[in-house]
Amino acid sequence: MIFKGTPLSAGPIKKILTVLTAVALAGAVSAPSEASGTKAAVEKITVAAAADIYVSQASPTLNHADYTWLSVCPKTCDGVANSERRALIRFDVAGVPSGATDVTMALELQPARSTGTTVAVHPVTAAWEVASTSWTKQPAFGSTIAERTGFTSGEVARLDVSSAFDGNGDYSFGLTASAGAQAVLHSSRAPGGLGPRLVISYTEAPVVAEGPLPFDLPSVQALRASPKKVFAHYFTPYPISFDNKAESEDYYTRNYLNPAGESNKHLAYGGLLRDRPLPRAPLSGNWQLADMETEVRTARAAGIDGFTLDILSLTSQNWTRAKLLIEAAENVDPGFSIVLMPDMTSLKADAATLATSMAELAESDSVYRLGNGSLVISPFKAESQTAAWWSGFINEMQQAHGIKVALVPVFLNFAANYQAFASISHGFSNWGNRSPNQQSGIAGNIKTSHDLGKIWMQPVAIQDERPNQGIYDEANNTENLRVTWDNAISGGTDWVQLTTWNDFSEGTQFTPSAHNGGAYLDISSYYLTKLKTGTSPPIVRDTVYLTHRVQMAAARPTSGTQTKFMTPRANTSTPRDTAEILSFLTGAATVKASIGGAAQSYQAPAGVSAQRYPLKYGTNGVSVTRGGATTAEVASPFEVRQNFSVQDLQYDAVSSGRR
């Protein structure tokens, strides 16, 4: 592991991991507490069928696996004796908390025709596979657990199967008919997502007022009820792990953080990356999918609605990872949305080919659609193709695949392109800036979009540094993050895109990492809640965030082999050398800091406030005291050094809530 500028010893990393392990990042965000007077919210998980078929006594060796419907009929079916039909449906249930209470589970079926059939549901405990199941080779059905008479085409039929619930895992059900005509139900292969669904509702166990956040994050259900949406830009080249190895020998350590990695490919600029996802121990089983599920859970726990998925190619490893992320969302929570974002800086496919690939991904219930069913396509650098080209793509999606598209282009130059795209777009976005002095135009962009009847997706970023491109933006500690959020909220943005979740090559990651530990994601959760609820959430726990660099902005390595250096991007804020204390306090308090060993003290007000001090060489720490008691404290493991071997211009972050 390497600092952005100097080798990082095992000690600081162990400290960070100890802090983060204590709060279990995958579910670290606290739900509303009974102590604060908030009732536990009812949550809901909807699971699409993983497999479904029907078998027929009249065709004893067939499984009808390609049919878009399921047929259920009594022993005398439509006047023909000994021609009974049965259906089998399997679901993979995940995401129900172990402490959930008041759990109900309903099997939802969508009839393709209206009949007066009496249908019973039976648990099926034996394993079965579609390819090998037929009337003569079907698993045993258990006793009836639910029954319904009468089905109406176009109306969802719900059968209560709560008695079968036994936690997360596989559930199989068999359907039989005892009376009436043949019941015809849509299968999972029916277009439009009309197949069987399992809906699990539950109440999350209340928690005490503890956790890493300074406020109580509303429930997932409450946040998703808001029309305001927050997505995080997912970049497939940087998963949690490339090789499932221990931190000391994994690909990040050997090749991306090491200046000599990948056969000295990154030697000139000191290594490709300066940070990495939080290291983990090797996993068993399908570790790639498990890692993706961890990322979905982490984002979900922070209140994020979903990922905008950067689609770099339609083949190869990045395509495989894109599909794996969608599968992970399905497994963890189908309500966690994946927005398809073709990356037009690298995709060179024609409109028909792109449409075919997008339609393939859109088969998943986790891929984001508007309330009217329109599929959201949000191309990055949309101006790489003309508006006419995109109009052709939209027509291809409709005519060849039966999918209506809501286009939300992300421009690198919004002003130069939005008018040409207005007639074909549902909304607009841009990639934005990463410096606080360049955020004054946000309200104007939002107004321009709203005046045209379009939604606006505002980019929100922490910082940006690109060693291999030799450039960086001055973010002024957390100022760019806070200013962008504030301007987006006050300007009335409809959606937000966090740029980015995990593009470590540009240093823009919100995902918990070795150098931010989840602090930036926690801060963003506060503003996310303000955006969605329309009010600043009450501070219920004193929490302080400390951010600083590990070297002065103008300094150059005193050793090592680096020859290419990052310089400020044109028009960015003036680079500065500061340590910032961002406090979220329940009441006024004394904040004491040690900046490079020099003692500092000030009176901080209740609420959110920031205090800066000149950066000094050495270590940094901060504490909050009120009434003689220490209510929050944190020490940074990142030492500011005068001598170093690699240029490092990211702002490291630590939180008192993640000790």
**Number of discrete helical segments:** 12
Globally, the shape reads: elongated
Q: Low-confidence parts lasting 5 or more residues at pLDDT below 50?
A: 1-39
**Going across the major beta sheet, what is the strand order?**
14-13-12-22-19-18-17
Number of strands: 31
C-alpha Rg (nearest Å)? 27 Å
- Helix and strand content put the structural class at alpha/beta
- The helix fraction, in percent, is 10-25%
| Beta-strand content estimate | 25-35%
Q: What is the average per-residue confidence, as pLDDT, rounded to a whole number?
A: 92
Straight-line distance between termini: 21 Å
The main sheet comes to: 7 strands, parallel
Q: Could you give a short description of this structure?
A:
This protein is α/β, with parallel strands linked by helices and 659 residues long. It is built from 12 helices and 31 strands.
